[in-house]
Amino acid sequence: MATVGGSADFECPICMGPVQRAVVSRCCRHRFCTNCIAAVQQTAGQGGASGRCPYCRSERFAFDSVREPPPQLPPQQPIRRPPPQASARIYRCQAAQCRFTGTENDFLDHLVNRHRRELLDNHHLLFRQQQPPQQYEDPPDRNPRLAENKKTYCGGPLNGPPCDCCSGVCGPQDGCNCVHCMTIDLANFQVTHGNSLVNKFGRVASLSSENGHFYCAAIMGLAELGGSGDSIAYCGPIDGPNCEACQALDVQCGSRYASLM
Ligand SMILES: [Zn+2]
Ligand SMILES: [Zn+2]
Ligand SMILES: [Zn+2]
Ligand SMILES: [Zn+2]
Ligand SMILES: [Zn+2]
Ligand SMILES: [Zn+2]
Ligand SMILES: [Zn+2]
């Protein structure tokens, strides 16, 4: 049989073309197109040529279908491989109500497919500077000291979620202190009731049971309270918003200082 390039095995002896949807004969293991065999057999059934093998003429002609080799990818299409750092670790999705668990690549696919909006909206949180550790531990060299504002600072990491005002360090520069130092503040300021904290201006601030805000009764320039003009106002429930230091406590009382409330 004339062949080009030595591909005789894949050339159908009936149509002389490349085999389409191959079947293989049991007699001589030759490949034929399914359609070509069907056409030959139909002819035989109509009293034409006998049911012999079209290649070796065996009378016991029978054939089996052959699984096609997988189609080859176009050469310009790169083969996808998992990134080399992929590990066998199993990840559990932390999204509310989501029960997904899977390996690294599956988890990444899951995040992109199912939590696309959250990823896009919150990705900046991944790159926050100086995020404090999740578990708060006293720094080994913790040495609480009184600052000018009469508050106590130890220089260790702030516990709880980061606040907008802070670099994450319990220190007088930003004014917020850790829960341990706040405990010392409460003792120093002789605060015994559970609805007060010492704000970062060094003033005792009490939580209003009526509106859920802290107030320290500080006399503040109105501008400092977010207003305008030269008049002054108190940080209190009847004078508009509370001061900046008390606004910080509004948030922190539910997280960093929750154990003191
Ligand atoms: Zn054929
Ligand atoms: Zn044959
Ligand atoms: Zn999920
Ligand atoms: Zn970005
Ligand atoms: Zn802060
Ligand atoms: Zn501290
Ligand atoms: Zn205040």
What can you see in these coordinates?
By secondary structure, this protein is α+β, with helices and mostly antiparallel strands. Among the domains are: 58 residues, Herpes Virus-1 (2-Layer Sandwich), CATH 3.30.40.10; 116 residues, no CATH class. Helix content is 19%, strand content 13%. It contains 5 helices and 12 strands. A hairpin with a 5-residue loop joins β6 and β7. The chain is rod-shaped, with a radius of gyration of 39 Å. The termini are far apart. The site of one zinc ion (ZN) has 7 residues, from β2. One of its GO terms (molecular function) is zinc ion binding. Keywords: Metal-binding, Zinc, Zinc-finger. This is RING-type domain-containing protein.
Sequence stretches where pLDDT stays below 50 over 5 or more residues = 1-7
Report Rg: 39 Å
Number of helices: 5
Bound molecules: zinc ion
| Dominant shape | rod-shaped
C-alpha termini separation: 94 Å
Enumerate the strands of the largest sheet in spatial order, edge to edge or round the barrel.
Answer: 2-1-3
Structural class: alpha+beta
Query: How would a crystallographer describe the biggest sheet?
Result: 3 strands, antiparallel
Mean pLDDT: 80
Order of helices and strands: EEHEEEHHEEHEEEEEH
- How many distinct beta strands? 12
Share of helical residues? 10-25%
% residues in beta strands:
5-15%
